[in-house]
């Protein structure tokens, strides 16, 4: 069985000239769990992961795997499997041969190629050229690559990006399986909704800094709740709240007051002889909390009542798109290739 090792970031900072990409970042990631590493585009996720993998030198601080920096790991390829960006595969080479090339270069037993292709559900397409693969199949091949050395630690940068619903469902189950085997699984994403169902914990960063760490269920406790209040005489209610120095905005369900205390609002109404038609505390949903924490969201006006579950998808945050090419084209559909039209025949290995 692979050995899951903890990942530890300790006061890591990285500046590129005037740009602070990572700012005094500290957190740890435990084995046996899937940890989502979240933040909007440009938040510093990729830079952090590159520091962890020894591809970028931190300006200060340390990032370690099992207490050891990547470059000092005795056997890095069998300790950590990493997929940092949509892997570019030679289109004319078959899936099997791609992995053989990497396995040979890394001194990994060639028999692992068949094992990992099977693991990611690509055995049937092992002899097909990658040029004919859909985005989803390429993502699976990238995952197969990370598993070649049977590592206990997996670091995956945006592995769900661009997948169709079936691919997303598959990868969620797969990440859980890997963590269930005791591996440490760190998965970055700029969309909470993308990883929400597959992570045990989240680390959220914005502008290079940690803004939330912990169980997903605690996310919305970090964002102040508000009170929704309404009256048949809304204008007078607004005047009364204003007179008490409370901040609020108009919503469909009533006035949305920045206050955690419905009793206080009720008291104000009573003192002003106002009839109330609604008075309840509303907590932000997970996605709203996420957007608020990373500085890109206002609490939206719900039609629902307080304990309403998270609502439908909120459009992707478009914050500080700090890197060109961050926006991906619309995802390809991810059907299995039709053997009749696939660009190469079974067994056409090169
Ligand atoms: N090599 C570099 N040179 C200069 N600036 C860089 C470099 N790499 C990253 N940055 C900047 O550092 C900040 C963080 O970028 P990073 O790619 O780490 O963010 P990210 O959270 O991974 O975003 P994305 O989801 O868009 O990849 C951005 O402002 C980016 O422009």
TrEMBL record:
Region listing for Disordered, in residue ranges: 301-350
Keyword Zinc appears in the UniProt entry: no
Signal peptide: none
Biased composition (Basic and acidic residues): 301-314
Compositionally biased spans, kind Pro residues: 330-340
Residue ranges constituting the ABC transporter domain according to the UniProt record: 7-232
Superkingdom as given in the UniProt entry: Bacteria
Name this polypeptide is given: ATP-binding cassette domain-containing protein
Species this protein is from: Orlajensenia flava
């Amino acid at each position: 069985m692979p050995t899951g090792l903890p990942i530890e970031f300790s006061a890591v900072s990285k500046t590129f000239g005037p740009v602070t990409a990572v700012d005094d970042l500290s957190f740890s990631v435990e084995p046996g769990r899937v940890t989502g590493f979240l933040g909007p585009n440009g938040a510093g996720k990729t830079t952090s992961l590159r520091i962890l993998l020894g591809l970028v030198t931190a300006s200060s601080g340390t990032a370690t795997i099992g207490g050891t920096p990547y470059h000092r790991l005795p056997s890095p390829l069998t300790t950590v499997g990493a997929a940092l960006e949509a892997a570019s595969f030679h289109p004319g080479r078959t899936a099997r041969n791609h992995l053989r090339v990497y396995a040979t270069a890394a001194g990994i037993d060639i028999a692992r190629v068949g094992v990992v292709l099977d693991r990611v559900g690509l055995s049937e397409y092992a002899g097909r050229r990658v040029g004919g693969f859909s985005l989803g199949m390429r993502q699976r091949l990238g995952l197969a690559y990370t598993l070649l050395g049977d590592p206990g630690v997996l670091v995956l940068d945006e592995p769900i990006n661009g997948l169709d619903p079936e691919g997303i469902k598959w990868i969620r189950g797969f990440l859980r399986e890997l963590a269930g085997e005791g591996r440490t699984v760190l998965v970055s994403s700029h969309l909470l909704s993308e990883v929400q169902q597959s992570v045990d914990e989240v680390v959220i960063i914005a502008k290079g800094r940690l803004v939330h760490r912990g169980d997903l269920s605690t996310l919305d406790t970090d964002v102040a709740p508000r009170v929704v209040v309404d009256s048949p005489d809304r204008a007078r209610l607004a005047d009364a709240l204003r007179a008490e120095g409370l901040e609020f905005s108009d919503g469909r369900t009533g006035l949305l007051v920045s206050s955690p205390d419905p009793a206080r609002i009720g008291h104000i109404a009573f003192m002003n002889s106002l009839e109330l038609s609604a008075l309840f505390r509303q907590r932000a949903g997970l996605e709203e909390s996420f957007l608020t924490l990373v500085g890109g969201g206002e609490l939206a006006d719900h039609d629902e009542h307080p304990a309403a579950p998270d609502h439908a998808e909120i459009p992707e945050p478009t914050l500080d798109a700090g890197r060109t090419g961050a926006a991906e084209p619309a995802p390809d559909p991810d059907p299995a290739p039709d053997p009749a039209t696939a660009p190469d025949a079974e067994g056409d290995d090169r």
